[in-house]
Amino acid sequence: MVPKVENPEFRVALRGGALLGSPRFNKGTAFTVEERKAFGLTGRLPSRVNTLDEQCARAWDQLMTRETPIRKNSFLQSLKDQNWVLYYSLISKNLRELVPIIYTPTEAEAISNYSHLFRRSEGLYLTFCDQDTMEEDFLEQTKGRAIDLVVCSDAEAILGIGDQGVGISAAKSAIYTLIGHIDPIKSLPVTLDVGTDNEDLLNDNLYVGWPHRRVRGEEYDQFIDKFVQLVRKYFPHSLLHFEDFGVTNAQRLLARYRDQHACFNDDIQGTGAVTLSCIMAAVGVTKSKLCDQRFIIYGAGSAGLGIAHQLRDAIVSTDNLSPAEAAKRFYLIDKHGLIKESLGSSLIRDSLYENGFVRPDEEWEGAKTNESGEVGLLEVVKRTKPTVLIGCSTHAGAFTEEVVKAMAEGCDRPIILPLSNPSKLVEVDPADANKWTEGKALIATGSPFPPTKMPNGKDYIIAECNNALIYPGLGFGAMICQSRRMTDDMIIAGARRLASLSPALEDPDNALLPDFGDAPGINFEVAVAVAEQAIEEGSAGVDWKKEDVRERAKERKWQPIYGEYVYDPEGEQA
């Protein structure tokens, strides 16, 4: 039986139109008769008092009249601007259908048209040319608020569509609330506008961002550091989430700040953590170990390198190998082919050298190469006989029939994870991967795909290796225990908890990860595991025992329900 949730009481200073215009406090037609009288709303609303369920039914009917995903996205954004509780309640009741509308893949289209769809500002915009007033602007936006989460982006590498200049990180914050139980008033989405190199935007008269070439180098670093120090100064126990930073900055910034503050980069650590969970589940099906696997990662950008780091660190932690020994199990491929020593430092990032992911040339003597001397994917598959093939390249169709069949010849149950988003950029359609391996492959994708048929006629459910299955829980766990850092062991603990909930562990032909519709409950379990690990390792800023974490976490969950309002001129206004 689900316990009854008590409606919170709020002392509110807003009245009349100001109250109806506050998305945090507005209830629309759900204001009670008593509240309408107390807050001067009687003549501003029609007579009937609706329940939240009735409002959701009406909003759903209105949403269904919008025929395209982008129009549905626009409607939901408008609803969010009016009424937070109704917005989050509606989506919570329809997670499978609506998260793809407010997040991947539709949000990519919304952001690419951000300037033309712009209606109302949301969050905090910090622009390079206005950095002299950064602290003043920061404090004005956060006045009277206890911020637990800061989601920031410089919009250089958004959702597979690249440099978009300016586009608020609100969608990511919304997922934290929907699935991770974060109170939206304690979340701050931030745009760090350092310009754009996108010619279409620079030539667009309606572009709402700073129409300037993207700032780089020392000036960029100083701007970012000024922002980070404000977060550290005023909200020392918050989680700082880096989102959609370009490949030249993402890993570098995370490395610079992760020992100073609780920092998280979803493109690196979130993608790595959910992929780790997926592979842990697959390893459970094959009854092997992480250290037994041979990994090919096709696409060595932020996501691919983040996955490699996460898997390597988990092998070190779980199987007690040295980092150097664990790194020998990885073969990374980018647009220049296999990453090996002869590519030279001009084409290989320092982090690849530092982490041992650059293959020695002597391994590849006699290897078949293309006209440019590159060792391609098929040759790497044939020579290494991988057990795990991961795609994060946005190179549609890269896992060809020949590649997949060559992999299947080398292992009994190949683990194939084409993770690129959106679905049109996937490295292989899971139906094809299933067919070409005669149903042997263990498959997960980055975007939703329908089930595919096994040779025995049974449906094989394609797991969605979606970061949202884990990053909200990782964040919520770090926030509730006020962790000073987001450590590798905290992330691995969360990934291990998610993997333990895999349906495939009960039935090897079932999905590798839980259904996305169960994401809120799954992320709560992840959060508990993360907070328990933080307490065990001494990273937590609270004086709790591990056995207290679950109840403490329940107490801190935000849920989309209407509170009871008492008018108080000294009450809340934000």
From TrEMBL:
<dbReference type="GO" id="GO:0005739">
    <property type="term" value="C:mitochondrion"/>
</dbReference>
<keyword id="KW-0520">NAD</keyword>
<dbReference type="InterPro" id="IPR012301">
    <property type="entry name" value="Malic_N_dom"/>
</dbReference>
<feature type="binding site">
    <location>
        <position position="243"/>
    </location>
    <ligand>
        <name>a divalent metal cation</name>
    </ligand>
</feature>
<dbReference type="Pfam" id="PF03949">
    <property type="entry name" value="Malic_M"/>
</dbReference>
<dbReference type="GO" id="GO:0046872">
    <property type="term" value="F:metal ion binding"/>
</dbReference>
<dbReference type="GO" id="GO:0051287">
    <property type="term" value="F:NAD binding"/>
</dbReference>
<feature type="domain" description="Malic enzyme NAD-binding">
    <location>
        <begin position="268"/>
        <end position="535"/>
    </location>
</feature>
<dbReference type="InterPro" id="IPR037062">
    <property type="entry name" value="Malic_N_dom_sf"/>
</dbReference>
<dbReference type="GO" id="GO:0004471">
    <property type="term" value="F:malate dehydrogenase (decarboxylating) (NAD+) activity"/>
</dbReference>
<feature type="active site" description="Proton acceptor">
    <location>
        <position position="172"/>
    </location>
</feature>
<keyword id="KW-0560">Oxidoreductase</keyword>
<feature type="domain" description="Malic enzyme N-terminal">
    <location>
        <begin position="80"/>
        <end position="258"/>
    </location>
</feature>
<feature type="binding site">
    <location>
        <position position="466"/>
    </location>
    <ligand>
        <name>(S)-malate</name>
    </ligand>
</feature>
<dbReference type="GO" id="GO:0005829">
    <property type="term" value="C:cytosol"/>
</dbReference>
<dbReference type="InterPro" id="IPR015884">
    <property type="entry name" value="Malic_enzyme_CS"/>
</dbReference>
<dbReference type="InterPro" id="IPR036291">
    <property type="entry name" value="NAD(P)-bd_dom_sf"/>
</dbReference>
<dbReference type="Pfam" id="PF00390">
    <property type="entry name" value="malic"/>
</dbReference>
<feature type="binding site">
    <location>
        <position position="267"/>
    </location>
    <ligand>
        <name>a divalent metal cation</name>
    </ligand>
</feature>
<feature type="binding site">
    <location>
        <position position="244"/>
    </location>
    <ligand>
        <name>a divalent metal cation</name>
    </ligand>
</feature>
<dbReference type="InterPro" id="IPR001891">
    <property type="entry name" value="Malic_OxRdtase"/>
</dbReference>
<comment type="similarity">
    <text>Belongs to the malic enzymes family.</text>
</comment>
<dbReference type="GO" id="GO:0006108">
    <property type="term" value="P:malate metabolic process"/>
</dbReference>
<protein>
    <recommendedName>
        <fullName>Malic enzyme</fullName>
    </recommendedName>
</protein>
<keyword id="KW-0479">Metal-binding</keyword>
<feature type="binding site">
    <location>
        <position position="421"/>
    </location>
    <ligand>
        <name>(S)-malate</name>
    </ligand>
</feature>
<feature type="active site" description="Proton donor">
    <location>
        <position position="103"/>
    </location>
</feature>
<dbReference type="InterPro" id="IPR046346">
    <property type="entry name" value="Aminoacid_DH-like_N_sf"/>
</dbReference>
<dbReference type="InterPro" id="IPR012302">
    <property type="entry name" value="Malic_NAD-bd"/>
</dbReference>
